[in-house]
Design goal:
mainly alpha; binds ligand IN0; single chain; globular
């Protein structure tokens, strides 16, 4: 079924697409018309590299918007260098290690890549112009993460064992995800806390929760992208897990090994689900509503993707992706913490329902889903407390949840206003159609 057909088959998703495209009420509309050409071009580059996520960044509070945009583009440039298989390791490794020093220049560019996002390197001077306009504290954070990530990536390129055999243990898997995604979490958290958009405690745990936010996203990508990565000759599923199910990672895609393949996917999903509690704890501490949106959207997409790939043989056949309409519906409904917790609950239940007794991890996955449900229940109880329960002081969690209620209520009102505008528009459109038909029928 084509994309339009899919939308017509899911009317609530169609309404969500209409609402998101034409009825979103931006809190801080961005007007780039009178801005510097380098700022305009930077946002164009952002659009070229990631359309949907670019829209989320553009909606951030102006205090953080440009810093996150520059951070994203610098990381994208680093990632593009790492991904490009056409340049020699002798050029690539020093480039990655010294990439942070390019941020001290005003006009560095690089033209030797063949990757699809090479424009960010060919026009790196544009990004540099905007980087130097950021507050020095924001620049320092971006530079520090670029240095750590570039060195981490270079270590992997030099690691022959990694190149030949991929990721060996679950510890190595976590370390690889640390370099490419955990560090992004650390950088973003530093930016968010500095801008006073998140609770100070977000950066007082040695960046553990920030790290796990990144790991949850990256592990979901790695499970989903099995087919694509295999075709590119890259192995990110950890051997410690897949070797329980096959002698070679490529064997898992054979139809004859379907049960083993599915059990392996489910094992990896179980591993990723281990981070959900920390993700929800993190989101609880993001105070600014737009920053909340920005941090919550990728996480909600990730849990929806995990439910999609769970026990799904299509992972071995083709690229599995969420429908566009589903993405729009999720983005609309996650503007409040209770909305996010509800969506997490819904997908965890979906995984639990798909659970098969034949799965070797049947018990462990069931227990993990139960734990997450229980955690959601402590945040937003579905059932009221029993009438005979003795009065007690609120727990720390209940206090934080209560302190956010005002912000969440305000966001809920914006959401409802948009929905009522969409309904009015659809009603108007329906009346025009009916009126036209009536006119046509009666005039012939
Ligand atoms: C991201 C993350 C991201 C956003 C918000 C908070 C985060 C906290 C910790 C770590 C990462 C966080 O989000 C993007 C989302 C994205 O780019 N989505 C793609 C869709 C897709 O399937 O790839 C899109 O085109 O919309 C993300 O995936 N990464 C990322 C990179 C830079 C920054 Cl500043 C933020 C990449 C990664 C590897 C997961 C960290």
């Amino acid at each position: 079924m084509g994309k339009v057909g899919q939308l017509l088959a899911h009317p609530t998703e169609l309404v969500a697409v209409v609402q998101l495209l034409w009825f979103r009420l931006p809190m801080h509309p961005q007007n780039l018309k009178d801005s510097a050409p380098t700022l305009q071009r930077s946002y164009e580059l952002l659009n070229l590299t990631s359309r949907s996520f670019a829209a989320v960044i553009r909606e951030l509070h102006p205090e953080l918007r440009d810093a996150v945009m520059v951070f994203y583009l610098v990381l994208r440039a680093l990632d593009t260098v790492e991904d490009d298989m056409t340049i020699d390791a002798k050029v690539k490794v020093p480039l990655l290690r010294l990439f942070d020093s390019k941020l001290d220049t005003k006009d560095w560019t690089f033209h030797e890549l063949k990757e699809k996002d090479r424009a960010v390197l060919e026009e790196f001077d544009v990004i540099l112009a905007e980087y130097h306009k950021l507050k020095p504290e924001y620049q320092d954070i971006i530079k520090d993460i670029t240095r750590k990530m570039g060195n981490g990536m270079a270590d992997y390129i030099l690691d022959d064992n990694f190149n030949l055999n991929g990721v060996a243990t679950v510890k190595d898997y976590d370390l690889y995800c640390h370099y490419v995604a955990g560090l992004v979490g650390e950088g973003l958290t530093k930016l968010i806390v500095l801008a006073k958009f998140g609770d100070d405690t977000l950066s007082e745990d040695g960046f553990e929760r920030s790290e796990l936010m990144g790991l949850f996203l990256q592990k979901t990508n790695i499970i989903r992208d099995y087919r694509e990565d295999l075709e590119d000759g890259r192995l990110f599923w950890p051997k410690e897990i897949w070797s329980l199910y096959a002698d070679r990672l490529t064997d898992l895609k054979e139809p004859a090994n379907r049960d083993a393949g599915l059990a392996c996917i489910n094992h990896l999903v179980l591993n990723a689900l281990g981070h959900v509690k920390h993700v929800l704890e993190y989101l609880l501490l993001v105070k600014d509503p737009l920053t909340f949106n920005f941090t919550a959207i990728p996480q909600v997409m990730a849990v929806a993707t995990l439910a999609l790939v769970y026990n799904n043989p299509d992972v071995f056949e083709r690229n599995v992706k969420l429908r566009k309409g589903t993405t729009c519906k999720l983005i609309l409904n996650l503007r409040t913490l209770p909305g996010v917790v509800k969506i997490f609950r819904q997908y965890i239940r979906e995984i639990n329902h798909k659970l098969s007794v034949n799965d070797p991890n049947y018990l462990k996955i069931g227990i993990k889903c139960g734990e997450i449900e229980q955690f959601c229940e402590t945040m937003y109880p579905l059932a009221p407390p029993p009438a005979d329960r003795a009065p007690r002081d609120p727990t720390a969690m209940e206090q934080i949840v209560a302190s956010r209620a005002q912000v969440d209520k305000a966001m809920q009102r914006v959401l409802e206003e948009e929905q009522s505008n969409v309904r009015m528009m659809l009603l108007g459109a329906a009346m025009v159609v009916v009126g036209t038909l009536f006119y046509l029928v009666t005039s012939y």
